[in-house]
Amino acid sequence: MNEYEAADDVVSEAEPPFPWPPAEGEPIVSGFGRTWRGACLEPRSFFAAMPHDGIGSALLYYLAIGIAVAGGALFWSTVFASFPDEGVMGKLAGGTWNPIVEFMLSPLILILSIFLAAGFTHLMLLMFGGAGGGFAVTLRVFAFAYSPQILGIIPVVGQIAGFFWMVAIAIIGLSAAHRTTTGRAAAAVLTPLILMIGFLVMIAVFFLAAGGLV
Fold first, then answer.
1. What is the DSSP letter of 19?
2. H-run or E-run covering 8
3. pTM for this structure?
4. What's the CA gap between 74 and 76, in Å, rounded?
5. For residue range 78-130, what is the model confidence (pLDDT) as tens digits?
6. What is the pLDDT of residues 153-184, one digit of tens each?
């Protein structure tokens, strides 16, 4: 084997610069695993290398995780439903939605959620002067930053851990992908969250006060 053939072997064995969508001939599971590992464990380099065009493949990745989590929620609601209503497990199974209906609607809910979240965040980026790319960049970051939410398959603890991990990745990812400061990215991500939490607290206080007046 000459030096040129050896060099070709090295290039062919090297991993593609961005793992999703998988390279031709690479198993989807392998590409998915490398994408999850890169987004969760090496977010700055992962999002710095992320292509800025197209949203279809990123949304498919996001939906795969979201639907898996919805399937886990359906499973646990079925398990917890066997416990008495007054018990802790019974309360976990409670809810206004039929679990099967919620699972069936999960793709629609997931799509609406990511477009709303990415839309508000991109608006904040524009306001703070941190939008180095278009809306598609923000949407792709959110899709891949959703990776740790796979922990949501584990009730309560996994959901909480996955959420905070996701927020941290989104901040790093926006900073790297939009080529902006971490402070601006953090402000863009956290401002809508703070406003939403404040709004929910106001609603809760209103209903508590209304209940006390009855």
1. -
2. helix 3-13
3. 0.82
4. 6
5. 876 655 554 444 444 455 567 788 899 999 999 999 999 999 999 999 999 99
6. 998 899 999 999 999 999 999 999 999 999 99
Helix intervals (H) in the chain: 3-13, 28-41, 43-48, 56-80, 88-93, 99-128, 135-145, 157-177, 182-213
In a 10 Å sphere around its CB, with 0-12 CB exposed, 13-18 middle and 19+ buried, how is residue 118 labelled? buried
Domain ranges in the chain are 27-213
Compute the distance between CA of residue 179 and CA of residue 91 in angstroms, rounded to an integer.
45
Residues contacting residue 79 through CB under 8 Å, at least 6 positions apart: 89, 93
Identity of the residue numbered 68: A
Q: What is the DSSP letter of 95?
A: -
SS3 for 189? helix
* DSSP for 75-94, written as a single string: HHHHHHTTS-TTSHHHHHH-
| Residue 144: exposure state from Cβ atoms within 10 A (0-12, 13-18, ≥19) | buried
Q: Give CA–CA dist 72/26, Å, rounded.
A: 27
Structural contact between residues 174 and 121, judged by C-beta atoms closer than 8 angstroms: yes
Q: Say if CB 151 and CB 159 are below 8 A apart.
A: yes
Query: Which stretch of DSSP H or E encloses residue 127?
Result: helix 99-128
For the CA atoms of 174, 175, 177, 178, the dihedral, rounded to the nearest 10 degrees, stands at 90
